Amino acid sequence: xxxxxxxxxxKFIDILPLIMLxxxxxxxxxxxxxxxxxxxxxxxxxYYWVLRQPQSLGYGFIFLSGLIxxxxxxxxxxxxxxxxxxxxxxxxxxxxxxxxxTLINDWISFVPAxxxxxxxxxxxxxxxxxxxxxxxxxxxxxxTFIFYPVLWGFFSLLLNLTKS
Amino acid sequence: xxxxxxxxxxxxxxxxxxxxxxxxxxxxxxxxxxxxLIFLETIDAKPLNLIRSFVKDVxxxxxxxxxxxxxxxxxxxxxxxxxxxxxxxxxxLKKENEKLKNNxxxxxxLEMENIQLRKLISEQIESESNLVSARVxxxxxxxxxxxxVINIGANKxxxxxxxxxxxxxxxxxxxxxxxxxxxxxxxxxxNSKIPIISEPSGNHAILSGHGDSQxxxxxxxxxxxxxxxxxxxxxxxxxxxxxxxxxxxxxxNKDKIEVQLYSKLNEITFVNINLEGIKDRK
Lengths: 164, 282
Prior knowledge:
A: 6 helices, B: Thrombin, subunit H, 6-stranded antiparallel β-barrel, 6-stranded antiparallel beta sheet, 5 helices, about 25% strand
């Protein structure tokens, strides 16, 4: 009846995306800022897993993680949830319409996801009377897009581990 | 043409309306809930505030636990860095000590003179009892946001708008109060606007944060005489903060007038909250 080390490892790898999702939210580290660079790993994480293995990352958890991010970052409740759900929505749409899995396909389809998410983010903060640094938002989107293949590689490795 | 349009429609419906494998909620339903939450956030009603307070308190406490490993890691990293910079720090401190010794006699005299003058104009000198101390539970410093979450809230009579000090230096104000926690908006935050007065030039201005470490002075009069090294204090003009709380020093950078804060915001563990002003107005 006991759980073997292999089974435990398998379960752990299965829920690792979920752990990462909540760790990022609770740590308030959805955006990594290193000098001039600024990368939104939250978007990449949600996009990749909803696209490749949606059963690992439920929409409810994504919503909850967005709410936690809002509280931690001091934004109005719902702003991050909404933009993350839009990222998930684009990923779900791309999953339905594509057959082949390639980095280039994923990478290009990530552009509309980023655009939608940042548009929603901008609109919600604008109507909640929050100041927004437009240049920063643009810079963040560009670097998030550029950085996508790096995390894509890492997550693909993880996905292979899950499957094996 | 019609067929491809139908295909897109079917795909969108499938992505947003269907629950999908092992999903309990549809994306569409959650998006609607998110939009509702954003609207609810604009409503200021007591029951809603109570729920918000409770939710935020729970999340802050959970975040404290989950950030513990990160804190240990960053603590060890800064400890190693400090050790590497020990010799340089020693030399800097030696020089600074010499300088302070020279200035000490001068400042003693000025302090005595200041006390006498304050007595003369019957100004109420702020007492220590007006300050309440708190520990910083979470700190968020990014271009998006510069804020702290502290471990006291309505339970210690904290109210929105109260001035927050690091020692005697102004660092921000309270913007969100829960039962057992509050959020401080730091002067470096994009949304922070603090009325100040400069000394000795005596100009009034607004200290605006930009998401980086140095806020700037805005809305200065055209013929201002602000120089490098001028001291910046809260002016108390908006009637919330006490006037005369030190903030930093002017550091001109081309056309910008930046303010070098006295406090190092990334090294703060405890803060003081000035209960005066708002409490008096009740």
